[in-house]
Amino acid sequence: MEPAIGTGAERRDANASLVDKDSTTDGTDGTAGSQEPAERGDDGAADTTAAPSARPPHRRVAVLLGVAAFAFALDLVSKFLVVAHLEGQPPIDLLGDWLQFRGTRNPGAAFGMGQAYTIVFTVIAAAVIVVILRLSRRLYSLPWAVALGLLLGGALGNLTDRVFRSPGFLRGHVVDFVAPKHFAVFNLADSAIVVGGCLIVLLSFLGLQPDGTRDGEGDGPDTAGGEGTDGASSEGDGTR
């Protein structure tokens, strides 16, 4: 009888070992199953983080400086030609008396305004240049780069006259020569300032920012992140 008893004990030991293996396998599967929602949650977070930014990848400082240099050079050359060939001479008719080239000196702001405040306008022009250069550090929009470049080139053109022309430092008179009928005489720097200012107003109206984004686009990533978090939470609740 002893061999039979021994055989029953061996069978019970074998059954117990099988039960232990099954429970171990179930626990491993349960652990893996509980990790799957977390992995999906992590994937959701990764997708949110990897969402492309609405801002363009490159700054547009080179465009800003190129447009400013072109506007400044064009204004400077035109003024040299006016001083050399047009000042003290009869005006040149382009469209009869409706549009003339006539060399004049302007102590005021653009289009002859504020002639008693020459130094004030000189300081304002210098401040505008500083503001534009500071803004260029976060300039990613091409249209804004063109607009600010025109504004910068025009401001530099007239500031050069204020600093270097007579009657003295910071009080120099600006050279003007474009003379439409029934309108103030102006120069190419004034034109660049006006066109650049109009572009800035238009871009602001359209909601385009200097950093390349549009009004309201900053809320997108936050909303997506919230959805990803909620999705991960709901999956975790389903697992529980």
User: What general outline do the C-alpha atoms trace?
Assistant: globular
The total count of strands amounts to 3
Q: Evaluate the radius of gyration.
A: 37 Å
**How is the biggest beta sheet arranged?**
3 strands, antiparallel
Quick gist of this model?
By secondary structure, this protein is mainly alpha-helical. It has six helices and three strands; from the N terminus they run H-H-E-E-H-H-E-H-H.
Write the layout of secondary structure elements.
Blueprint: H1 2-49, H2 61-85, E1 92-93, E2 99-106, H3 118-135, H4 142-164, E3 174-180, H5 188-206, H6 219-239
Antiparallel strand pairs: 1-2, 2-3
Helix pairs in contact: 1-6, 2-4, 3-4, 4-5
Molecular structure report:
- It is a single chain.
- This protein is mainly α and about 240 residues long.
- The chain has six helices and three strands, in the order ααββααβαα.
- It has a three-stranded antiparallel β-sheet with strand order 1-2-3.
- Helix 1 packs antiparallel against helix 6 and helix 2 (about 60-85) packs parallel to helix 4.
- The longest helix has about 50 residues, at about 1-50.
- Residues about 1-5, about 25-55 and about 220-235 have low confidence and may be disordered.
Quickly list its features.
240 residues; mainly alpha; 2 domains; three-stranded antiparallel beta sheet; 3 strands; 64% helix; 7% strand; disordered N terminus
